Amino acid sequence: MNIPSLPTDNLYKFLALSGLVICLYSFIFPMKNIGELELKSLDIKTQSEVLRIEIDYLKTDTITWAEKAKLDPEETVLIRKRTREAAIKAAELKGRMEQIEVLRKEVLFYWKLLRITYFLGTAISLAGFCLWYILVQRPNDILLRKQIKKEKT
């Protein structure tokens, strides 16, 4: 992709167009990243919910076995194994929740970035367009009108 270069023949024109580029970029970059982060967050939330359900089933099974009066040695080993699995799943769930929190903070950062860069780009663009019109374009128009009147007479 070949990106056209901004005009450098006039500082005000450059400011105006670079401000517009900043405004556009301030929307495209954060929105692209926010969308990706939202998808990751949904995936992690889904995985977390699956882990939570597995943990609940493991706890229910453990309680059922614990209520039995006599347990076979095999059942005791199985209970210990399932309890370890539940602890591992709980740790995984905690890690997933921390990932979601990191993603949430990242999304908030991109929203702040969007606001700041959009405001900055708009201010630069407006200043450039106003200065370009007042200091360059209007005097050129007046000069051109005078030349046209002069040629007509």
Q: How does this model look, in words?
A:
The chain is mainly alpha-helical and 153 residues long. The protein has one domain. The protein has two helices and no strands. The two termini are 51 Å apart. 7% of the residues are buried. The model has no long low-confidence stretch (mean pLDDT 80).
Largest sheet: none
Count of beta strands = 0
User: Approximately how much helix is present in the residues?
Assistant: over 70%
Low-confidence stretches: none
Rg calculated over all Cα atoms: 32 Å
Secondary-structure element series: HH
Domain count: the total is 1
Mean pLDDT: 80
Q: Estimate what percentage of residues fall within beta strands.
A: under 5%
Alpha-carbon distance between the two ends: 51 Å
Principal-axis shape equals rod-shaped
Count of discrete alpha- or pi-helical segments spanning 4 or more residues: 2
Structural class: mainly alpha
